[in-house]
Write a structure and sequence with these properties.
This protein is α/β, with parallel strands linked by helices. It has 14 helices and 12 strands. It is globular and about 75 Å long.
Length: 392
């Protein structure tokens, strides 16, 4: 992005938006209350499950980042995905989804959505003919992660956007791995999803999500009669929203440092002979596509994957790195410390083994969310040393 979101000074002139710790709001008169519940866009707040000044302020900043008209804040990334797609789909409708997605999202699509009569077809999103073939007249959404979890596949946003829109479907992009790095709306995305838990908050102390889209779609999500966010109730507490909003102010700087560290480690370990998946490496099959889509100032991101071959080797490697103080064995990402996991046995374990094999995801993989370390060369040397020790 060329410019940062503007932070609004609130009515009390605080440099941070005020925390509105209220579940309900007063109306000036009964007629205004009636009109608001009938859907009149008066701008009034009515109930915190509908909206709250603090969460609204956070949503405005996220909408500015993703270049959308509005954003709705939710209590988790999973609730953001659920509400957005249920708002688009009804029984009998279909979704075309990438097969390489977070395991929880896969389980939602595979095991829960069919209970509502919604069919999800999983495809290789880098195979455009496969995406076209999966589309039908009942397809309402094409869903994928801009950079996939955990394989770091990069999707051609313009190409998939064209396929989706030619089929009268909406393109829904989970941009959790790449805030600021990619702006999917520039390439046709209709809705952008975030797990605020990760990079945007950056301190691994809360769960939250966001849905960024048109004003019309966001208003529909909080409709008192048919809005999925309003009626399913994934409401984020305003105290947490305020905390995330403060952390959001440093997101651009943090993403630059995460990316610098990710690139340094990827290059160093690749030169040392390790098998590294990272779109910033010139030999990576997605490198040119990533370069053509990214906001280059922010780098290629802090996520990388190491292929250690065997599960036992991957396990021993993570233990050595933990003992050396390089990182923490934990799921999630975007923390100031490096986090590492074995996705085949954790965040992708919900995906059946046969499907993981088709994706090329083995239990020998280690997913790394690189932290904000200043002495990244020391980290690189420790990672190489640990690899040499476990690969003897």
């Amino acid at each position: 992005m060329d410019k940062q979101p503007n932070f609004q000074i609130d009515a009390y002139h605080g440099v941070n938006p005020s925390v509105c710790d209220s579940s309900t709001f007063a109306f000036s008169d009964p007629q205004t209350m009636k009109a608001t519940f009938e859907g009149d866009p008066t701008g009034c707040f009515l109930y915190a499950r509908h909206s709250n000044p603090t969460t609204t302020a956070l949503g405005q900043s996220l909408a500015a980042m993703e270049e959308t008209e509005a954003a709705v804040i939710t209590a988790s990334g999973m609730s953001a995905i659920t509400c957005a797609l249920l708002q688009m789909c009804e029984s009998g409708d279909e979704i075309v989804s990438s097969r390489t997605i977070y395991g929880g999202t896969y389980a939602l699509f595979k095991n829960i959505f069919p209970r509502f009569g919604i069919t999800v077809r999983f495809v290789d999103m880098t195979d455009h003919e496969a995406v076209k073939s999966a589309m039908t007249e009942r397809t309402k959404a094409v869903f994928f992660e801009a950079v996939s979890n955990p394989l770091l596949d990069v999707v051609d946003l313009s190409a998939i956007g064209a396929i989706a829109h030619n089929g009268n479907a909406q393109m829904v992009v989970d941009n959790t791995f790449t805030p600021y790095i990619l702006t999917p709306t520039k390439f046709g995305a209709d809705v952008v999803i975030h797990s605020l838990t990760k990079y945007i908050n950056g301190s691994s102390d809360c769960i939250a999500g966001a849905i960024c889209g048109t004003r019309e779609f966001c208003d529909a999500l909080i409709s008192v009669s048919s809005g999925m966010c309003m009626l399913l109730g994934p409401t984020l507490d305003p105290l947490r929203a305020a905390s995330i909003h403060k952390n959001f102010g440093t997101l651009d700087l943090r993403m630059i440092q995460h990316s610098r560290n990710g690139m340094h480690i990827a290059r160093y370990l690749s030169h040392a002979g390790m098998k590294v998946f990272y779109p910033g490496l010139e030999q990576n099959r997605h490198h040119k596509l990533m370069v053509s889509q990214m906001n280059s100032h922010y780098g290629f991101g802090g996520m990388l994957v190491l292929d250690l071959g065997e599960e036992a080797t991957a396990r021993q490697y993570m233990i050595r790195l933990s003992d050396a103080g390089v990182g923490i064995i934990a799921v999630s990402l975007g923390y100031h410390k490096t986090l590492m996991s074995n996705p085949g046995n954790s965040t992708s374990s919900e995906i059946p083994e046969k499907q993981r094999d088709q994706m090329g995801l083995t239990t020998g993989f280690v997913r790394m969310s690189m932290g904000l370390d200043q002495d990244i060369q020391d980290v690189a040397e420790k990672m190489e040393s640990a690899w040499k020790a476990v690969s003897k």
